[in-house]
Design brief:
The complex is a heterotrimer of chains A (359), B (285) and C (353). Chain B has 285 residues and is mainly alpha-helical. Chain B is built from 13 helices and 2 strands; from the N terminus they run αββαααααααααααα. Chain B has a single domain, classed as MetI-like (MetI-like fold). Chain B has a two-stranded antiparallel ribbon with strand order 1-2. Chain C contains 14 helices and 11 strands. The radius of gyration of chain C is 22 Å and the shape is globular. The chains are: A alpha+beta (359), B mainly alpha (285), C alpha/beta (353).
């Protein structure tokens, strides 16, 4: 087994009376696309800056390819960072920007030229070398910033929410491009974002971070379908949350405040608490389930609104005559085109899709 | 409609053009004419290039000019060396609130006239001045030394009076610089000295250029500081122009010197811009 | 607030109209030549407002030359700087001596000034005050300084100060045994003489502390003991003597340089009548004495001596013997050519290392 590209052991960073990163332990495997997903202020940028070398950890060690780099300055680390605002050098043209790191390595002019050209081709910017930074579009700047770091063939490429400044369409496009690029070059990417869609689409592994610690490190699929904590369940993907009381354990049955009884699955160990939160994903709700479906929870929905958004169309409904709002994903196969505001519909959900966490 | 716009354009442009014409062009034309006039052996006025020829044939004149120009350049370099760390500190190191305060502190001495500032320095540096007094009363020295009236004190005075004109463009150009580009350079393998040479200096280049031009011109055209703080050897070219006009009544010669100062300093600045590959328009925008 | 604004506006207009209605006298003069006390008295007596502009000989000429004699009603150049300037640039208008109360004036001085400022048959100036340039010496620290040669003396290294201006050249020429005034008409000989003086000054340059340009700054340096031998005006030396009896003005052996400052009316003066009024006013014995008591300069006013402070009278007796007074070298009128020769030599001295 190869040594992991990055190993973090008991890493901690405190500022005065605030703990930004709290005793982290994890590793990143060679060639993977690793994302750290968390809300703003969760400590992910602090972690990134420690890995890049701009911040010194309060305690703990940081190994890159097995070598201790805890106190190595940024310019001596085989790690490069793509900044959130890209931080391209405005006084240099595209070629000079990309060549900057190579020149620092003392490479010969010809070699630099070749590498830069190859890299420009790789990010689809052939012929842009002489252009000034101010002449580029947002997406092109993005690619120059990535190329500038990638050309140094770092052990680990850090990306600090680099798509944040782009408009939605471009962002969607860049997501795919980045993923492809990473697969082509094989460099390990460590990607930081608060946008769960970016993390889920691109990553091999995602670490969900909250208040300085990792809640769960897993594949995107597992993160989505088997969230380990209520935070992950709530943060990753859309979800309907209902406060419930335990009606019986084994098999777990819960009751809502408005008297609906549901069979459910425990997320993690529930200890003895009776007050739970029930998480149901919008797409797990089955509309007008056939009677042949056994073992599903059934209830009545009252349609309040239809939020048409193409493939992402949703139904806003209240559940079982209560005033609890519920979001339901609406399949776009015209099967439910007849549904209108104020309709009452039968709905159901599998007990496995009803996940309970401690409130 | 189009005529309306054109008319208002003329109305707005007229004061500017008048200002240029009345305050800049006409006096210079008069000076130019004056510089081309002289008297022949009979004392009658004639057109002549003698005033310009004098500058090159009389060693003392061009010697003074070269000396003045070299010292003005030195002033520019020293002012940059002294001011840059200050500007960098104010814009990049301290908090925004403190930086505003520090900028004002930096500008404060310039609310009083240059004469007062120069006298302030003279009070500090003179033989019976504050610094000598402190050194003697603290037992570090036995006899006072004269710190005024030499080239070093003159340079110091020039640097001091020029600092503001370097600090303001430097601060404004460094303020526009995103800290992350320094970090990016560091991350891409640049050591701190390399970051300074390859990132910060090129980024601040327009500010440095405009500051340098202003400081150079001010030092070259300064009269007060070299006369008051400079020593007995410190003949400054402007002093020579003053002497021609006021002491020798030779306005024609003085006007010629004035034009030579204008032409030669323009050449020096042009050469400086070429050498550093800067553009005037970009530096002054 | 509105009332205040109204009052302020009213006051402003009142001031403007007052300024317009009353006459003004624009006086281009030296610092100290128009004491505040006398200006107020004059304004009271005549109702004419006095506007002062301070200057020196060179700048006075430059200012008037720039406007071709306009902008001022009365100027106070030295008598030797009038005739050549007048011949070349026509800066002044001939004086009407009948309008001057000549009974107040020392007759010989008036006649001498008339003679020295005569251009094409007309005279242009009335004497106001006179004084001399010589040595200001700290007699305790430099007891041997009796002549201008002390300014070149190695013994006083770092304690010497003088002005890099024409009086210094002339003084050193006299100290060398020559008479530069006699060579005014022969520029070639004059240049030769002054080249020699310049060479001596360059040779002795290491001994000089600095070349002073501001009279008050010089006095401050002598007062603090930084300078012990200086060339300066007699009144400066006397002012310092009043503070510290070691310091005094000394009439040099080869002769103090005597100057007379005058009144001359610029060619395009607006208020000529006021100019004559001021001349007659300030030369009244009691007024002239006010000036002399303050500035220590003697005036051309005949009866002023009676109104002088004893200390001021003592000054002259202490610094000048009978022989010293006879030995005063009065500046004769100087030509532009002579000044150009001097200018170049002075530049050379300044630039020399």
């Amino acid at each position: 087994m190869n040594t992991p590209v990055l190993q973090i052991q008991n890493l901690r960073k405190t500022f005065a009376d605030f703990t930004a990163v709290d005793t982290l332990n994890f590793q990143v495997e060679e060639g993977s696309f690793f994302s750290i997903l968390g809300p703003s202020g969760c400590g992910k940028t602090t972690l990134l800056r420690m890995i890049a070398g701009f911040l010194e950890p309060s305690s703990g060690t940081l190994l890159i390819r097995g070598k201790d780099m805890t106190t190595t300055p940024p310019n001596r680390r085989p790690v490069n960072l793509v900044f959130q605002n890209l931080a391209l050098f405005p006084m240099m043209n595209v070629h000079e920007n990309i060549a900057f790191g190579l020149r620092r390595q003392g490479l010969a002019g010809r070699e630099i030229g070749q590498k830069v050209e190859a890299m420009l081709e790789r990010v689809h910017l052939s012929g842009f070398g002489k252009k000034n930074i101010s002449q580029l579009s947002g997406g092109q700047k993005q690619r120059v910033a990535i190329a500038r770091s990638l050309v140094l063939e770092p052990s680990l490429l850090l990306l600090d929410e680099p798509l944040g400044a782009l408009d939605l369409k471009l962002r969607e496009q860049m997501k795919i491009e980045l993923k492809k690029l990473q697969e082509e070059v094989g460099t390990t990417f460590m990607y930081i974002t608060h946008d769960q869609s970016e993390a889920l689409v691109m990553s091999d592994q995602v670490a969900v971070m909250n208040k300085g610690t990792f809640e769960q490190i897993d594949t995107p699929r597992n993160l989505y379908s088997n969230p380990a904590t209520s935070f992950v369940a709530g943060f990753v993907g859309e979800t309907n949350i209902l406060p419930v009381q335990v009606a019986s354990r084994r098999p777990l049955q819960v009751a809502t405040s408005f008297g609906l009884q549901l069979h459910a699955t425990a997320g993690i160990d529930l200890n003895d608490s009776d007050s739970l939160a029930l998480y149901i994903r919008p797409e797990s709700i089955i509309l007008e389930p056939s009677d042949s479906m056994k073992h599903i929870n059934r209830f009545l929905l009252t349609v309040q609104n239809i939020l048409f958004d193409g493939s992402n169309t949703k139904l806003l409904a209240t559940i079982a005559e209560s005033d609890h709002e519920f979001t339901v994903a609406l399949p776009q196969n015209q099967q439910f085109a007849h549904i209108a505001k104020g309709d009452h519909i039968q709905a159901g959900v599998h007990p496995e899709s009803c996940r309970c966490f401690v409130r | 409609m189009k005529n309306h716009i054109r008319l208002s354009l003329y109305i707005f442009l007229t004061p500017v053009l008048l200002w240029l014409l009345l305050l800049i062009v006409i006096p210079h034309i008069e000076l130019l004419i004056m510089s081309l006039k002289g008297t022949d052996d009979l004392g009658d006025p004639v057109w002549t290039l003698a005033n310009y020829r004098h500058f090159f044939t009389e060693q003392i004149y061009w010697y003074t000019f070269v000396r003045t120009a070299v010292y003005a350049m030195l002033t520019t370099v020293l002012t940059f060396v002294v001011t840059f760390p200050v500007a960098f500190y104010i814009t990049k190191v301290v908090s925004v609130r403190l930086s505003g305060f520090l900028t004002i502190v930096l500008l404060m001495p310039f609310w009083v006239s240059e004469l007062v500032r120069v006298y302030g320095w003279m009070i500090l540096l003179r033989e019976s001045g504050v610094i000598n007094h402190l050194l003697i009363s603290s037992g570090l020295m036995n006899t006072p030394i004269e710190m005024l009236y030499n080239d070093i004190s003159m340079m110091m005075g020039l640097v001091y009076t020029s600092m503001l004109f370097m600090a303001v463009p430097l601060i404004s150009s460094l303020e526009g610089m995103d800290d992350s580009i320094i970090e990016a350079a560091h991350d891409l393998g640049a050591s701190p000295p390399t970051i300074f040479c390859k990132i910060i200096i090129p980024y601040a280049a327009p500010g440095i250029t405009s500051g340098s031009i202003v400081v150079f011109m001010l030092a070259l055209g300064n009269y007060l500081t070299p006369t008051l703080m400079g020593g007995k050897n410190s003949l400054w070219f402007t002093e020579q122009i003053y002497n021609e006009f006021i002491a020798s009544f030779n306005w024609n010669q003085g006007a010629a010197f004035g034009f030579l100062l204008l032409a030669l300093s323009s050449i020096i600045i042009w050469a400086g811009l070429k050498l550093t590959r800067q553009e005037l328009g970009r530096a002054l925008s | 607030m509105k009332k205040l604004l109204f009052a302020a506006t009213l006051a402003f207009f009142a001031m403007v109209t007052a300024a317009h209605s009353s006459e003004t006298l624009k006086l281009l003069t030296w610092k100290g030549y128009a004491p505040q006390q006398l200006v107020e008295k004059f304004e009271q007596e005549t109702g004419i407002k006095v506007e002062l502009t301070y200057s020196n000989n060179e700048e006075m000429i430059a200012k008037l030359r720039a406007t071709r004699g306009a902008g001022f009603d009365l100027a106070q150049p030295s008598q030797d700087r009038i005739s050549s300037v007048q011949a070349q640039y026509k800066l002044y208008q001939p004086l009407d001596y009948s309008k001057i109360n000549s009974e107040q004036l020392i007759t010989s001085m008036l006649e001498a000034v008339k003679k020295n400022t005569k251009v094409e048959g007309a005279s242009y100036a009335v004497p106001f005050c006179y004084g001399t340039s010589g040595l200001i010496v700290n007699t305790k620290l430099a007891p041997e300084a009796k002549d201008y040669t002390a300014l070149l003396d190695k013994a006083y290294t770092g304690r010497i100060s003088y002005r890099l201006k024409r009086p210094t050249l002339i003084a050193l020429a006299f100290a060398g045994g020559d008479d530069p005034f006699a060579k005014y008409d022969d520029p070639k000989a004059y240049k030769e003489l002054m080249d020699g003086v310049g060479a001596k000054m360059i040779e002795a340059k290491p001994y000089v502390k600095n070349y002073w340009s501001n009279g008050d700054a010089l006095l401050e340096m002598v007062r603090s003991g930084e300078v012990t031998v200086a060339m300066g005006w007699d009144n400066g030396g006397w002012k310092l003597h009043a503070e510290n009896s070691d310091i005094d003005f000394i009439a040099p052996k080869s002769g103090a340089l005597g100057w007379i400052d005058t009144f001359a009316i610029p060619a395009k003066a607006k208020n000529v009548e006021a100019a004559y009024k001021w001349i007659n006013f300030i030369l009244k014995p009691e007024n002239a004495a006010v000036f002399t008591n303050a500035e220590k300069y003697a005036t051309a006013s005949k009866g002023a001596a009676a109104h002088l402070d004893a200390e001021v009278r003592d000054n002259i007796n202490r610094s000048f013997t009978e022989a010293d007074i006879d030995n005063i070298k009065w500046y004769p009128p100087v030509s532009a050519k002579i000044e150009q020769i001097e200018g170049k030599i002075l530049d050379t001295v300044k630039a020399a290392q």
